[in-house]
Amino acid sequence: MIPEIGQFALILAFATALYQFAVPLYGAWRGDQRLMAVAPPAAMLQVCLIALAFGCLTWSYITSDFSVENVFMNSHSDKPLIYKISGVWGNHEGSMVLWVLILAIFGSAVAMFGGNLPPSLKARVIAVQGSISVAFLLFILLTSNPFNRLDPAPIEGRGLNPILQDPALAIHPPMLYAGYVGLSIAFSFAVAALIEGKVDAAWARWVRPWTLAAWMFLTVGIALGSWWAYYELGWGGWWFWDPVENASFMPWLIAAALLHSAIVVEKRNALKVWTILLAILAFSLSLLGTFLVRSGVLTSVHSFAVDPARGVFVLGILCVFIGGALTLYAWRAPVIKSSGLFAPISREGALVVNNLILTASCAAVFIGTLYPLALEAVTGEKISVGPPYFNLTFGPLILPLLLLVPLGPLLSWKRADIWAATQRLWVAAAIAIVFAIAAAAWQSRGPWLAPVGVALGVWIVAGAVYELLSRSNLRKAGAAVAWARIKGMPGATWGMLLAHAGVGVMVIGIVAITAWKQEVVTVLKPGDAMQIGGRIVTFTGESPVTGPNYSAERGNFRITASSGATADVWSEKRVFKPSNQPTTEVGIQPYLDGDVYVVIGDRAGDTGRTVRAYFHPLVWMIWLGAALMFMGGLASIADRRYRVGAPKKSSAAAVQPAE
Amino acid sequence: MALSRKRKRGALIVGGLGILGVAAGLVLYALSDTITFFYTPSDVVEKNVEPGTRMRLGGLVADGSVIRGQGEEVGFTVTDTDREIKVSYIGILPDLFREGQGVIAEGVLEPGGNFKADTVLAKHDENYMPREVADALKAKGVWKDGQPVPQGGAVQ
User: Fold this and answer.
1) A293: which residues sit within 8 A by CB, 6+ positions away?
2) A592-645 per-position pLDDT tens digit
3) Is A618 left (phi over 0), alpha (psi -120 to 50) or beta?
4) Which of B44, B27, B46, B45 is nearest to B35 (CA)?
5) CATH fold of B37-148
6) If you average pLDDT over residues A467-473, what whole number do you get?
7) B35–A603: do the CB atoms touch at under 8 Å?
8) Of A340, A504, A522, A586, which is least surrounded by CB within 10 A?
């Protein structure tokens, strides 16, 4: 009964979405207030219906109702409750329901909080949002129904892929999806603005927080995925330039560009047409990501069994939305006028450079991700484009941007003196050089470029700290005034400083782990020891372990630091019950200078084990950097200026008829 | 003012084209230099792949071919049921590595015709067949979509 209610709710949601798409759009075109006014209630109804369907599916998982095919395929009654719930989105059908649920939540948020938007813009935004729902609900109903029944019902389910039974991976997909789908709001605003033929500061004040929210979710989603790959896959890597990773990284890059260009639209009334293009591109790349992950056209370490028919359907959705939006863009963009003028050397100019570099590096990632697909279609040859390609293209492209991060915020709007700004940063430069020397002394091995990379990261962090101190005017005004100024700093400024510092911290972590990683593979018998990262790792023996739905062989290790302090870690080879699928759990001991990372391998001889150990210097800085970027987004989004709505001038303009 | 506006726009366009040019150059250079080709054991013979070439070797792990437990090095044979190539690898094999299952090894072909792998690719899903391997096997008529992996590799 419950699954049928869910199924029915999905169908009703589809009908509601169709209504939400067509009626307000027509109403806005005719200027009919009553027809436009149906948009918000339709969006609210749609979100309730999809939430009901999602709830029904979750209920079927919690109660282990194996008469539902989806539950049978992906769940097992022995599983801990949290993985029964995360099993809902640990598979294709359920994850698509989550996708449309998040889409509908974002749409209803515009309906609820969009009171200060011009009525026609609001109606159009919600209508475009509805059109995306139409496409994806149809996709679910026609190709990926999560509520299909099995008769007779099996007694036991087949279990969730054990590698997905992990806390980080339980929340990674919802975060990533919230990011992907959050960009749909920017897309809907862009398309609505193109139809209206008008972009103003009020528009930018709406687009920026939504893009920020989506970007924050993407940041967390990508970071969680990376962290999971780091400790779960057992290869000691945190980023593989894998197609599925790139699929989430590309929208992140464009969203980051969009965040910066929306500032120019809001403050300076310039770059409007470009900003609209970015908003369209950002969501297009989200759709592309969905397609790449869901269609299985790319070989990836993350790919799951897939059905090609679904890929064709998503490809169709992709073509309609991207093609449609870009056609509309080509037709309507010339109507939109920018008035703000600026010199090349100015805050605006710096933000343009930021945008150019971010989009160019995204293009490089795009080509590297899709080139194997294109080559195979044309010549039939199978190739893989791996990390060397991305290091050679993305690295040099992003480098100048990193160098310029501290400089941009020091430039003034319209026209700036670049030498004055550079001179103000000499302290940051000096600190960076000191750290480079310290890094070279700390790690004498490794490439000569590594200390330079560390200096680059320190330069960015020091630049952010300098900016904070200079804004507080600490040197001249004294501590009390400085403190008052820091407290009174707008959220957006805090956000900028935190996020930029996060970039710097992450650069240091990436450079350190790339340049100074240590790896040892050796055979150890109980009692044997090896040395790594300045510490001694002793294999103290094996013990059998039984978990709730697996059994394991556990290797115990003792790590002795040079100070004599010891820490015990273990690494397990687990075999999960329903499927006999093996997984490996690694043992990680974090230290301030990096992680000692131990993986137990196959038996070697009578009592020996192959053991792989790594030392990952400063790897925590990668996660800290991502956390700082997230906090920066949070501070920026909390800026009260986004809540008070549009400035007076624009709301007066909005009263004028749109057509 | 009009002239200056044009010049300002000109500076932006030149800057933009400059960055795009650098990006395009890097991409072209990297694509010519860093990509790795995927070959099956038969391809290696038919296409006369030169020793020392970095490549991905794909196929099935031949039954009974895995040699473990002699120090850090592991040996196995990759077959496409026509031809086979011996692979050596130092490290820990992925959890889902099994005899009779599909595998992709990345590394270098040695002069003697053996393959020295530095990466052996794992998949998240036990029923999943690496796509290149699946295509290659389908082309040979050994395997079809939806079938269990040949030689009884599929579980459940």
Assistant:
1) A244, A247, A302, A303
2) 999 999 999 888 777 888 898 999 999 999 999 999 999 999 999 888 776 655
3) left
4) B27
5) OB fold (Dihydrolipoamide Acetyltransferase, E2P) (2.40.50)
6) 83
7) no
8) A340
Instruction: Report which DSSP code applies to A78.
Output: T
Percentages (nearest 5) of helix, strand, coil residues in chain A = 65, 10, 20
ipTM: 0.77
Q: Does A54 touch chain B (CB under 8 A)?
A: no
No. of helices (H) and no. of strands (E), chain B: 3, 7
Distance (Å, rounded) from C-alpha B142 to C-alpha B103? Answer: 15
CATH number of the domain located at residue range(s) A1-165 in this protein? 1.20.120
CA distances from A588 to A336, A537, A564, A615 (A): 55, 12, 18, 10
Would you kindly state where each structural domain of chain A is located, as residue ranges? 1-165, 199-419, 518-617
The pTM for the full model equals: 0.89
Contacts of A416-423 with CB under 8 Å at 24 or more apart are A416/A343, A416/A345, A416/A346, A416/A347, A416/A349, A417/A345, A418/A345
In terms of C-beta density within 10 A (0-12 exposed, 13-18 middle, 19 or more buried), how is residue A132 classed?
Answer: buried
> What one-character DSSP code corresponds to residue A490?
-
**Domain residue ranges of chain B, discontinuous segments joined by +:** 1-34, 37-148
Handedness of CA A588, A590, A591, A592 (dihedral sign): positive
Q: Strand B54-61 vs strand B36-39: parallel, antiparallel, or unpaired?
A: parallel
End-to-end CA distance of chain B: 76
d(CA A249, CA A243): 10
CA distance B133 to chain A (A): 10
Give pLDDT, residue B152. 31
Q: Please, what is the end-to-end C-alpha distance for chain A in angstroms? A: 50
- Does residue A384 belong to the interface with chain B, where contact is any CB pair within 8 Å? yes
Residue of A262, A257, A283 lying closest to A273 (CA atoms): A262
DSSP A577: T
Q: Can you tell me the distance from the alpha carbon of A98 to that of A105, in angstroms, rounded to the nearest whole number?
A: 10
Residues 42-81 of B with CB under 8 A from A: 56, 68-72, 74
CA A513, chain centre distance (Å)? 21
Residue of A410 and B127 predicted with greater confidence: A410
Chain A residues close to B22, C-beta within 8 Å: 360, 396-397
Closest approach of A530 to chain B, Cα-based (Å): 14
* Nearest Cβ partner for A384 among B23, B56, B69: B56
**Segment 104-133 of chain B within 8 Å of chain A by CB:** 104, 106, 121-128, 130-132
Q: What is the gyration radius of the CA atoms in chain A, in angstroms?
A: 27
